[in-house]
Amino acid sequence: MAAATACANIALVKYWGKRSSALNLPAAGSLSLTLEALSTHTEVELHDGDEDELVIDGRRMEGRPLERVRAFVDLVRLPAADRRRVRITSANAFPTGAGLASSASAFAALAVAVSEAFGAGRSSRALSVLARRGSGSAARSIFGGFVEMVAGEGDDSSSSYARPVLDARIELAAAIAVTGSGPKAIGSTEGMEHTRRTSPYHEVWIAQAARDLELALRALRASDLDALAEVSEGSCLAMHADAMAARPGVVYFQGATLRAIETVRRLRRSGVPVFFTVDAGPHVVAFTPPEHLEKVAAALEAEEGVARVIRSRAGEGARLVESWVGREGPP
Ligand code: PMV
């Protein structure tokens, strides 16, 4: 039995496009902040039965989610020459069904727990390479705080990994405005592949992403929040422009998304240091120094179409924890 916890992360410089789908290699680097409030706890038990089992938030999973997890487990199980099956139990500490369930915390926690269960000790870098095979953003969740994803080179899987930005001189917290309803838009894997194949903006986007990463790292090290805000909002909007320019266009924004963006910009005009980002969904994340978090969260809460606001400080990296078995539930 092995148990691990990991926190999701939200990118300030977005990852949107792969250079290899088979190895899940990104076409450019990215930058994120790991968030304490969005954590996943995962337990892995080995057994001699015939089937791998996956239970997420108390629900037994079959089909594609199970297949994806089995293929991931095989990356550790096959080299370990161990034929045993896994029973994986996973729980998210954040509200489920809000469209926030992130593959980042899930695959980071799983990478740590599965490696431990099969006795395959790995360095943090190797764990991030492994987590990347499950989901690109999961590589970043191996580390806490600000994290840089290194794109790497060619087909060399080990060249693309995440590393913490240890000399950042800005502290940020996040207000996550959960907006939107209706059917889930296209997922990130399909969305980015469709965009890569059909968007006339894609090459320009990838070139800009690499430049944005350098600019954002420089801003973080120089304690220049205005510069970080500009590059981060620019990266988010350019990613969505790339997706919207695909044929047919992929639109993640909803009415409430635009209203929340405007609220963030209004706050900034009034002197509050805050900026927004939006992932492959309608929710808006506002980054601000911890001392401004409550004000920003309250302003977003007052916005029409915002169902709830999750407040989060920066989180730690993925780690082994005590099992919850025999206790009431996840810690
Ligand atoms: O790693 P994935 O497949 O969850 O893709 C993440 C894509 C975005 O969340 C939109 C951007 C990012 O860098 O996290």
Q: Which features does this protein show?
A:
331 residues; alpha+beta; eight-stranded mixed beta sheet; four-stranded antiparallel beta sheet; 8 helices; 14 strands; globular; binds (3R)-3-hydroxy-3-methyl-5-(phosphonooxy)pentanoic acid
How would you summarize what this structure contains?
This protein is α+β, with helices and mostly antiparallel strands and 331 residues long.
The profile of the biggest β sheet is: 8 strands, mixed
Say how many strands there are.
Answer: 14
Strand content: 15-25%
Q: Report the principal-axis shape.
A: globular
Element string (H = helix, E = strand): EEEEEEHEHHEEEHHHHEEHEE
What is the number of helices? 8
Uncertain segments are none
**Alpha-beta classification:** alpha+beta
The N- to C-terminal Cα distance equals: 16 Å
Radius of gyration in whole Å, from Cα? 19 Å
**Bound ligands, named by name, code or SMILES:** (3R)-3-hydroxy-3-methyl-5-(phosphonooxy)pentanoic acid
Helix content estimate = 25-40%
Average pLDDT value? 95
Give a structural overview.
By secondary structure, the protein is α+β, with helices and mostly antiparallel strands. It is 35% helix and 24% strand. It has helices spanning 63-77, 103-117, 124-134, 188-198, 202-221, 225-244, 255-269, 293-301; strands spanning 2-13, 18-20, 25-26, 30-47, 53-56, 59-60, 85-92, 146-149, 162-164, 173-179, 275-277, 284-288, 306-312, 319-321. Strands 1, 4, 5, 6, 7, 8, 9 and 14 form an 8-stranded mixed sheet that branches. Strands 11-12-10-13 form a 4-stranded antiparallel sheet. A hairpin with a 4-residue loop joins β2 (18-20) and β3 (25-26). α1 (63-77) crosses α2 (103-117) and α2 crosses α3. The longest helix is centred in the middle third of the chain and has 20 residues, at 202-221. The two termini are 16 Å apart. The mean pLDDT is 95. (3R)-3-hydroxy-3-methyl-5-(phosphonooxy)pentanoic acid binds at residues 11, 14-16, 30, 103, 135-137, 188-189, 279-280. (3R)-3-hydroxy-3-methyl-5-(phosphonooxy)pentanoic acid is lined by residues 11, 14-16, 30, 103, 135-137, 188-189, 279-280.
